[in-house]
Amino acid sequence: MKIFDSHCHLNDKAFAKDTDQVIGRANAASVDSMMIVGITEGTSVQAIEIASSYPGCYASVGVHPHDASSCTENVLSQLKTLAKNPQVKAWGETGLDFNRMYSPKAVQEKWFIRQLEIADELNLPLIFHERDSQGRFLDILKAHYPGNECKGVVHCFSGDRNEVGEYLKLGLHIGITGIVTIESRGKDLRKLVPHIPANRILVETDAPYLTPAPEKNKTRRNEPAFVRSVLMKIVELLAADPEQLADTVWDATCRLFNIPANN
Question: What is the pTM of this model?
């Protein structure tokens, strides 16, 4: 079994002192590949540094909607330069977050659209963040991608049945986190998983956040090794063969990020 943690933040300060051990535990749990996600210029640099130091690790570059207020054309120019690194396989995390509102809506939308344009220019798949955008996220994507040609993943999906359908029609993948394992919080998500084709599912930790059960009872910090619990919950929900589903999700992740499946 080979598992790909499609979204983690090993560039977070929570991992500053034990990155070697964290990656070692991931590999021991059959998590052979990890996408380390940038959310600012600085964390994008760190993501590339880590990805360049460990086999099976890759990086994305981008500006998170929380940090949109600090985005500039110069920042995006620097990220475009960083994206030339061969370890960079995606653009993001970008999108809209109208829940916490760390940046004004208009500012979030402006820099989200610019990042869509740049990802198109560089032919990079996108890692999306969406929370409580009241339809604006989908409106922008539909305007930018009028057909089913949007190559990316909706990270940490938390929407409804209609949104699943709309994302799939756009050609997107759906990222499932440890929320699916949490009894109360994951109830709605568990109902939706059977409506997602297996070859459009990606598994992720969002480490150090969103620790799945049962690990949540032992530690607060999530880490890539725990993505196995996410995969096994999906196996349960789909009544699938573990090896077959693992292969399907692995192949889907590698295909999305343009990484050889036998890496």
Answer: 0.97
